[in-house]
Task: structure prediction
Amino acid sequence: MATAPRSGTSADGTGRPVAHNAVSAAPPAHVPVQSDNGSARCLAEKPTAPPPREEAAVVVVPVATRQESDLFATPASESLIPKTGSKAEKLKHIELLVKKCEQCSLCRGRTQAVFGVGNPDADLMFVGEAPGREEDLQGEPFVGRAGQLLNKIIEEERSLGMKRADVRITNVVRCRPPENRQPSPEEVTVCRPYLLAEIEVVKPKIICALGTTAVRGLTGSTDPLSRIRGTFFLWKGFLVIPTFHPAYLLRNPEEKRKAWEDVKKIREKLASLRSGGG
Ligand code: URA
Result:
């Protein structure tokens, strides 16, 4: 397991200082693998390592049946989702809860909490780490320099060739950590129900986790990003593909080629899923 250092900068190169006591927030590692035919599957927990927490198991649900699955929502996230209304209305409701959330100390330093933006019915969702300075000021995720690169990834014709408004963009943590440090495990944990609720409402076909904090905060995987990036795996019935955080790519432009390869896989998988394939 890759445990974050107690000080210094984050291992995924987001440039954020690491929070004190930063360790994996969540459920245990799982092993994402690529099957021979390229379709995604997930080996659940290793048999010798029982999950240390109740929520820990990685539930493998075929994509085709995920709409029917009641395995996804934790009681905490389920209670955030109104029973009726359109996806947009449900997301608005969750956003209002996020905006007034005071469940951790990050609320004291924020200008505003930052909820997800984009298509409530998006096939593709990007999950980042936490708002930075610009996001905190503007109230929208990924609007700073990293956001500009993410926009390119989304919009350039040779990349995904989509519009920012077509996808969903969100974060594991909704309030800006002081000095842009990496969110602590506790902060990720208290914020996680909002993310789960947002995913449950949007039901994207693919979730692209941007950087280590996003992968860990979302799935609990403690596998090093270098091992799992560019690989699809199933998490609670959702296809997840980790890739580099755009802030990391800004600092390490030589890695952009690998990121483009990951993006190409997303593009191909989306096209295949949309045409009824796997
Ligand atoms: N980095 C993130 O992870 N999220 C944002 O919203 C902006 C920068």
User: Anything to note?
Assistant: Strands lie at 31-34, 40-43, 117-118, 124-128, 168-171, 206-210, 233-235, 238-243. The chain has nine helices and eight strands. Residues 1-13, 18-73 have pLDDT under 50 and may be disordered. The first strand starts at residue 31 and ends at 34.
